[in-house]
TrEMBL record, chain A:
It is a multi-pass membrane protein. The lineage of its organism: Bacteria, Pseudomonadati, Pseudomonadota, Alphaproteobacteria, Hyphomicrobiales. Keywords: Cell membrane, Membrane, Transmembrane, Transmembrane helix, Transport. Signal peptide: none annotated. It is found in: Cell membrane. The chain crosses the membrane at residues 21-44, 151-171, 183-203, 215-236, 257-280, 315-336. Its main location: membrane. One of its GO terms (cellular component) is plasma membrane. Belongs to the binding-protein-dependent transport system permease family. This is Alpha-1,4-digalacturonate transport system permease protein. InterPro entries: MetI-like, MetI-like_sf. GO terms for biological process: transmembrane transport. It holds the Pfam family BPD_transp_1.
From TrEMBL, chain B:
It is a multi-pass membrane protein. InterPro entries: ABC_transporter_permease, MetI-like, MetI-like_sf. The keyword Transmembrane helix applies. This is Alpha-1,4-digalacturonate transport system permease protein. Its main location: membrane. The chain crosses the membrane at residues 42-68, 117-138, 150-170, 197-222, 243-265, 307-329. It comes from Roseibium marinum. The keyword Membrane applies. PANTHER family: ABC TRANSPORTER PERMEASE PROTEIN (PTHR30193), INNER MEMBRANE ABC TRANSPORTER PERMEASE PROTEIN YCJO (PTHR30193:SF37). GO terms for biological process: transmembrane transport. It is found in: Cell membrane. One of its GO terms (cellular component) is plasma membrane.
């Protein structure tokens, strides 16, 4: 706290506030609001009931009118704070509303019916998290299915990526064979061929091998990432060859060398690739959108987009499911931020 | 602490055991293969899985794309399609005035090209300025720098669909932004239903989502500038503005160029966030190239994969040029670094 305070009153050269201090401060606080605000707003909104969502002006926290169960009435009644003519304030439950007059009862004493002008009453509201937004879409099965598909795609694609990329990187960094440079060149050359350029023929290849509208059709085209091979190769080049030679002297097979020496030593690079792969595959949108056609195969991203594109947008569900979609990435970010930032600074990959 | 570690180790061992077992099963056949084929054979074995997938899902489509762009019809497989030569390209490029998409035969393509060019120019320019300022500020003497860096970086990891939906929710008619306008006494705006505002929204949202990435690259560059240069400038009493133009900017140039080219390459491919946010509308005001390819190739009723392939090759050529520029600059940067 004292550091923050010291920052607040810090002055350039001791002669009053320099304009750069003000710009810094404004930029940081403005950044905090603009970058963080929308996400916070999403999270708070996701706990609101449909009625609260369509309110204008909106409240920050999800609010709901309190209800009470009153003897003699089946449904819970909404609670209001009523100012009576003699200036007294009472809490009454509304039985029904006719025009501008509300029929209300005292929850303690449900015998007498009061007639109150609706302008004389204010709903009693309290913070209330509408968890139904989360439970309902999950129970309707759609989203549990999407969630499962997304988890499957992310996990399987990451495992295959790590395995195949590390094997290829091992061959490209530790063996000399004819055509190695050609293979390397090929990989580097396609490093920058983006998906939109391959969309049409890739669709037909995936259909031809019978993977159209399957989760494997989503997984396989993404796993041979040139970026991954490149990243791992660069790292494996720093592992000394003497280590491998020593193992060979001890009659280790090449497979054992890969499995017992190279993989453990390349763990930091593998961790970076794993983190990126998880984020990439979890967030993939265009390719799953093209290759998946039946609803039960949708991933979360495609499912969300479909729901949001419907004529009758059910925002209360969509907002909640958007939060669910965000959770894994937020977890990855909070716990593994260090790896991500160093990975980007080190190789410019994304 | 130690008991926690022990549990973690035990869990790790339990997960690793079957994997290690599977790996050891592979050892014997692979040893035989090694004896039979030598080191070259092993290299082939290690390369095979990756290169097989790479070949089928990257190389083959890459070559096929050229063939596709010279065929017509709506069939998915090449056998069902007619060879038409350069017809699709002619159709794409048939235009009496390239500056006015309405005079073109494929007016949608040219609308997408116009939108994309304008998007790229504005987005890259603003992106460079915004991430530059942010990097400079994050590099200054501020408390809790790690926290502030995280604040600007975290949207990079959010999925484009999530980004699109977050902003769709804020920009809708009864959304937060209109409430803020209302509170300050201004009239609400239909942000996503007005052509110009929707276009601006796609630019702003994509900057919001990606600026953290470029800020990080610039920050790495700033931190590599030797401190003594600034100390010397301070001793000479150089004005801050002059320090920026004479020291910071020239030394940061390689990173700034990387940022500009990388964001150019990404901006040309803009799709996900914009598609979720506006769906290309209102009308065609936010229809970008990738969405054009997607709609012509897959989504529209009168799908025409050949035309989509031709359009994707045009886009691929632009990207190839940009990539070459980038590689060239990367090499120059390396030389500079070595010196």
């Amino acid at each position: 706290m004292s550091r923050v305070f010291a920052f607040l009153i810090r002055r350039r050269g001791g002669s009053g506030w320099h304009w750069t201090d003000i710009v810094t401060w404004v930029w940081l606080v403005g950044g905090l609001v603009i970058m963080f605000g929308p996400v916070l707003w999403l999270v708070f909104s996701s706990f609101k009931t449909p009625a609260a969502l369509s309110e204008f002006p909106p409240t920050l926290l999800p609010m709901a009118t309190q209800t009470v169960v009153v003897e003699g009435y089946d449904k819970p009644l909404e609670l209001y704070r009523v100012t009576t003519e003699d200036g007294e304030e009472r809490r009454l439950a509304q039985v029904r509303r006719v025009g501008i007059v509300a029929q209300m009862v005292d929850p303690e004493d449900p015998g007498t019916l009061y007639k109150i002008n609706i302008n004389d009453r204010v709903p009693v509201r309290s913070v209330d998290f509408a968890t139904g937004n989360y439970v309902e879409p999950m129970e309707k099965n759609d989203f549990t299915l999407y969630l499962r598909n997304s988890v499957f795609v992310t996990v399987v694609a990451t495992i295959i990526t790590l395995l195949t990329n590390s094997m290829a990187a091992f061959a490209l960094s530790k063996y000399s064979f004819r055509g190695r440079d050609a293979v390397m060149l090929l990989i580097v050359a396609t490093l920058m061929v983006p998906l939109p350029v391959l969309l049409v023929p890739l669709y037909s290849v995936v259909s031809a091998v019978g993977l159209f509208d399957t989760l494997w059709g989503v997984i396989l085209p993404t796993v041979a990432t040139p970026t991954g091979v490149f990243l791992l190769r660069q790292y494996m080049l720093t592992i000394p060859d003497e280590l491998l030679d020593a193992a060979r002297m001890d009659h280790a097979s090449e497979w054992q060398i890969y499995w017992r020496i190279i993989l453990p030593l390349a763990a930091p690079a593998l961790a970076v690739l794993a983190i990126f792969s998880v984020v990439w595959r979890w967030n993939d949108f265009l390719w799953p959108l093209v290759v998946l056609s039946s609803k039960e195969n949708y991933t979360l991203q495609v499912g969300l987009n479909t729901y949001a594109g419907e004529l009758n947008v059910q925002w209360h569900f969509i907002l909640a499911m958007t939060v669910v979609t965000m959770i894994p990435v937020v977890l990855v970010f909070t716990f593994l931020q260090r790896y991500i930032t160093s990975g980007i600074a080190g190789s410019g990959l994304k | 602490m130690s008991s926690g570690n022990a549990t973690r180790n035990r869990i790790g061992a339990a997960v690793a055991a079957p994997v290690t077992f599977a790996a050891s099963l592979l050892n014997r056949p692979l040893k035989a293969w090694q004896k039979l084929t030598g080191n070259n054979g092993m290299a082939a074995f290690f390369l095979a899985p990756n290169m097989a997938i790479f070949g089928v899902f990257v190389l083959v489509p890459l070559v096929m794309n050229f063939v596709y762009s010279m065929t017509s019809g709506s069939g998915v497989f090449l056998g069902d399609r007619n060879f038409v030569g350069a017809d699709q390209y002619q159709r794409l490029l048939d235009c009496s005035n390239y500056l006015n998409p309405r005079t073109c035969r494929e007016d949608l393509f040219w609308t997408a090209v116009h939108n994309t060019v304008l998007f790229v120019i504005l987005q890259v320019a603003f992106m460079a300025v915004v991430s530059m300022i942010t990097a400079l500020i994050l590099n200054g003497r501020i408390p809790a720098r790690g926290f502030w860096r995280a604040v600007f970086f975290f949207p990079v990891l959010l999925s484009p669909v999530v980004v699109g939906l977050i902003w769709k929710w804020i920009l809708q008619r009864q959304g937060l932004l209109n409430f803020a306008l209302f509170e300050s006494g201004l009239d609400p705006v239909d942000w996503l239903l007005n052509r110009d505002w929707a276009f601006a929204a796609t630019i702003a949202v994509s900057i919001w989502a990606h600026m953290g990435f470029y800020t990080l690259i610039l920050l790495a560059g700033l931190q590599a500038i030797p401190r003594d240069l600034y100390e010397a400038a301070e001793m000479d009493g150089t004005r801050p503005a002059r320090v920026f133009w004479r020291i910071t900017l020239p030394l940061l140039m390689p990173n700034l160029l990387v940022v500009i080219v990388l964001s150019l390459i990404r901006a040309v491919q803009i799709f996900d966030e914009a598609y979720v946010l506006t769906g290309g509308g209102p009308g065609t005001s936010t229809l970008y190239l990738t969405q054009y390819i997607y709609e012509v190739g897959f989504a529209s009723l009168l799908r025409n994969p050949g035309l989509a392939a031709a359009a994707s090759i045009v886009m691929g050529l632009v990207l190839a040029v940009l990539t070459l520029v980038q590689l060239r600059m990367g090499r120059k940067g390396e030389e500079k670094g070595k010196r």
